[in-house]
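User: Can you predict the 3D structure for this chain?
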Amino acid sequence: MALLKGGKSVDDAWQRIDGDEVLPETGPVVVDLSRWQQDRESLIARADAVGVRLQSDDDPESLAGDLDHLTLIALDFPGFKDGRAYSSARVLRERHAFKGELRAVGDVLLEHLLFMHRCGFDAFEIQSDDPERDWQIAVDDFDVWYQPTADGRPTALQRRSS
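Assistant: Here is the predicted structure, written as structure tokens:
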């Protein structure tokens, strides 16, 4: 599994903690929503960064009051037909102005990278032999857009009227 940020392959310093698995003493960790809700105070007190992984049926609004304590939110794509994480990304970026890392995890496909990026994702876990090439292919697919999104690119109407 490769991690892409800014179009570049990077090492992943985050450790995913599943369920009630024991937390490491140090290092950034990603926990699921129920673990965050259960151990919120002790996770906030950690010296290292904390992230939360939301499943597609988890409500991103449940983190609205905690975003200042989170460095990363991983949004799960359980299958290519399930796009609820797109909406969650937009809610977190646009409604709640989350400035941390939004990471696409799960069934992240090359064909979806650009659309994920437009919704606010800035990191992607993908299966790829050459993730940087795949990223370039994805971002070169389109250069004119009809709808405004979190990436700030001008729409076709804005380009036409400028």
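Strands lie at 2-5, 8-10, 15-17, 29-32, 50-54, 72-77, 101-106, 123-126. The chain has a mean pLDDT of 91.
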